[in-house]
Design a protein that fits this description.
With 517 residues, this protein is an alpha+beta fold. Helices cover 31% and strands 19% of the residues. It contains 16 helices and 21 strands. The chain folds into 2 domains: 105 residues, no CATH class; 382 residues, Double-stranded beta-helix (4-Layer Sandwich), CATH 3.60.130.30. The strands form 5 sheets. Strands 3, 4, 5, 7, 13, 14, 15, 18, 20 and 21 form a 10-stranded mixed sheet that branches. Strands 1-2-11-10 form a 4-stranded mixed sheet, covered by helices on one side. A 3-stranded antiparallel sheet has the order 17-16-19, covered by helices on one side. Strand 4 and strand 5 form a beta hairpin. The N terminus is likely disordered.
C-alpha cells in the first residue's frame, strides 16, 4: 500500500534531507505503473525525491548512474585566445608582430591590468559606502562557527526576507565602526557629478522590504534608469570573460569529475542530481512508455531521472587549493599539499592547468576588485600566495577555489577562511539571490555580479533557483554554478613569513634546503 504513505520506501529517504517538508504529499509525486508481468509498482518522477534516492543507491548501479548523468563535453570555440593573445600577422619589415610568446607573460598581464584598473577605478570613485548601524565585525567574528542556534536564527531571518526586494546596485557595506564587510560589484548609474567616493561620509543603510527601491538600488530601479536614458554601467565581470570561464569550468568537470556533496552544513547530502527541462516542453508531463525513459529501482520503487520532457545531471564540488595541511596533521612537521582535485592524476593534471590558463583574465580582474575593496587583506594574500602557489599560471592572490556545481547552498559561515572571499555565479537559471542575514541584506546575484565578503564571519546563503530549459549552442548545460575564491587560514599561518616560491622549492615544507658547512 505505497500510495497511502504507510509502507512506501519513500519514507526511508527523509533522513537524507535537511527539510522534512520536501517529503510530504507523496501521492502528487508518484504514480503506479505496471511492470512486464502486469504487477503494479510505484514510479517517482519528482526531481527532489529522485535525487535523494540516487544518493542512497550503491555499487554498480551508482556507477552506472554517475556515467549516464555525467557532465557533457562542451564546445570549445570560446576557449580560443583573446585578441591580445593571438599572433597578429607580420609588420612591413616582414617580422611577426608582438604576440603572447614574444611579449612574454609579464608584459601581457601588465597591458591587461592597465585596462582593468582603469575600468574599476569608476567603481572605486562612484560606488556608495553604506554604514550598517548595530552591526559590529568583532562581535560577529567572536561567535562559535556555524553554531546550531545561530544557523536557525539565520534561517528564520532568511524566511522573513524571501519576499523582500533584492539590492542590485554596486556599493560597499561597513559595520558601525567602519570595517568593510561586503563589497558588491553590480550595476551603477553614472554619477552626474564626479566625486571621490572615499572622501564622502558613509550613508546609513536601513535594511527592509523596500529599502533598495527607496535608495534607487533595486533591479527594477536600475532597469527604469536605463529606459529613461541614463547611463547604467556594470562593475562586475564582462560577458565574454564569464562565457569563456563557463566553458573552461564545464570542460574541467567533464574530465576530472567531482566530489559528491556531503552534509557539511552548506549542502544537502541528498542533492545528488539536478533535473532540468528539455527544450521540447515542461517537465512533469504524462508518463512515457518505459522504453522512452531511464530510471533505477530502490527498494521496489522506480525512480525516473530522464524522459522525453526532462533529464538529469550529476552535482558536486571541486576543491582547487594550491596548498593546505592534511587534516589533523601539524603543517610545520608534515608541510602543506595541493588538494586532491588540484593534481587529479596524470590525465587530470593537464586539465587543471588548462582551466587555470583559461581563467587568467578572470583572475586578474577579481584580484583588482579585491585590491580596491580590501587593500590590506590584498597585501597579506599576495605575499602568502607568492610563497605557496603550486600552479604558476594562476596569477593569484587566492590560494584556493571551490566550484559548486549545481548544488543548493544553505546558511553557513566559511570556517576555513583567513579573511575575505570572492563569490560569483555562472550558468543559466532563475532566482538564486544572495542572503546575508546578519546584515539583513538580500543582493541580486546574477552571472556577472561579484560579491567580496567576510565569509568566515557572516552567514550567507543562496536562495532557491531553477535551471533554464535545454542545452546552449555551446553545449553548456543549464543550472547554477557557484564559485568561491578564498585563502585558507591554516595555509596562511604557514606561508605568511615565507619567501616567494617557497612551496615549490621545498615541496610544501617537506624538504629542508641545507647550506654548505
Amino acid at each position: 500500500m505505497y500510495m497511502d504513505g504507510s509502507t512506501s520506501p519513500l519514507s526511508s529517504l527523509s533522513e537524507l534531507s535537511e527539510d522534512d517538508d520536501d517529503m510530504s504529499s507523496l501521492s502528487s509525486l508518484s504514480e503506479m505503473s505496471e511492470d512486464g508481468d502486469g504487477e503494479a509498482h510505484e514510479v517517482v518522477t519528482d526531481g527532489r525525491l529522485v535525487s535523494q534516492a540516487a544518493a542512497a543507491i550503491k555499487g554498480e548501479e551508482k556507477s552506472h548512474l554517475r556515467k549516464v548523468t555525467a557532465v557533457p563535453h562542451p564546445k570549445t570555440v570560446l576557449l580560443k585566445p583573446s585578441a591580445y593573445q593571438r599572433t597578429s600577422g607580420k609588420s612591413k619589415s616582414g617580422k611577426r608582430k608582438s604576440d603572447r610568446h614574444t611579449l612574454g607573460k609579464r608584459k601581457q598581464q601588465q597591458r591587461l591590468l592597465q585596462h582593468i584598473y582603469h575600468d574599476l577605478q569608476y567603481w572605486a570613485d562612484e560606488a556608495p559606502v553604506y554604514k550598517l548601524q548595530g552591526v559590529n565585525l568583532q562581535k560577529l567574528q567572536s561567535r562559535t562557527k556555524n553554531a546550531p542556534k545561530d544557523k536557525e536564527k539565520a534561517r528564520a531571518i532568511i524566511r522573513e526576507m524571501e519576499s523582500w526586494e533584492s539590492d542590485g546596485a554596486s556599493g560597499v557595506f561597513q559595520d558601525e565602526v567602519g570595517n568593510t564587510l561586503v563589497a558588491y560589484f553590480g550595476r551603477r548609474v553614472k554619477a552626474e557629478v564626479n566625486t571621490d567616493r572615499m572622501s564622502l561620509d558613509p550613508v546609513a543603510y536601513n535594511p527592509g522590504p523596500k529599502a533598495p527601491s527607496a535608495l534607487g538600488r533595486s533591479p527594477a530601479c536600475l532597469d527604469k534608469a536605463e529606459r529613461d536614458g541614463k547611463k547604467v554601467y556594470s562593475d562586475g565581470l564582462k560577458r565574454e570573460t564569464l562565457d569563456k570561464v563557463h566553458v573552461a569550468t564545464q570542460l574541467l568537470v567533464h574530465h576530472i569529475g567531482m566530489e559528491h556533496a556531503k552534509r557539511d552544513g552548506r549542502h544537502d547530502k541528498g542533492d545528488f542530481l539536478m533535473r532540468y527541462p528539455k527544450d521540447c516542453g515542461p517537465p512533469g508531463g504524462p508518463m512515457t512508455e518505459s522504453e522512452d525513459r531511464q530510471s533505477f529501482v530502490l527498494e521496489g520503487v522506480e525512480y525516473v531521472y530522464h524522459d522525453y520532457t526532462f533529464t538529469s545531471e550529476t552535482t558536486g564540488v571541486l576543491h582547487l587549493v594550491h596548498g593546505w595541511p592534511d587534516q589533523a596533521h601539524d603543517a610545520t612537521k608534515y608541510g602543506i599539499h595541493p588538494s586532491k582535485n588540484m593534481v587529479s592524476g596524470p590525465h587530470g593534471a593537464p586539465q587543471v592547468h588548462a582551466y587555470f590558463n583559461a581563467t587568467e583574465t578572470l583572475a586578474l580582474r577579481l584580484a583588482v576588485m579585491f585590491r580596491k575593496a580590501f587593500p590590506e587583506f590584498y597585501k597579506k594574500y599576495r605575499k602568502a600566495f607568492d610563497a605557496g602557489k603550486w600552479t604558476v599560471v594562476d596569477p593569484g592572490p587566492f590560494l584556493g577555489r571551490v566550484i559548486v556545481w549545481k548544488l543548493s547552498v544553505s546558511p553557513h559561515q566559511d570556517g576555513l577562511d583567513e579573511g575575505p572571499a570572492v563569490i560569483f555565479p555562472m550558468g543559466r537559471f532563475e532566482g538564486g539571490e544572495c542572503y546575508l542575514p546578519d546584515l539583513k541584506l538580500k543582493l541580486s546575484y546574477r552571472p556577472g555580479e561579484v560579491i567580496i565578503l567576510m565569509a568566515g564571519a557572516l552567514y550567507h546563503s543562496i536562495g532557491e533557483w531553477t535551471p533554464a530549459p535545454g542545452v546552449s549552442k555551446d553545449g553548456l548545460t543549464p543550472g547554477r554554478i557557484g564559485n568561491v575564491w578564498f585563502f585558507p587560514h591554516s595555509s596562511y599561518e604557514v606561508l605568511k613569513d615565507k619567501p616567494a616560491n617557497w612551496a615549490l622549492q621545498s615541496a610544501g615544507g617537506t624538504i629542508t634546503i641545507q647550506s654548505h658547512t
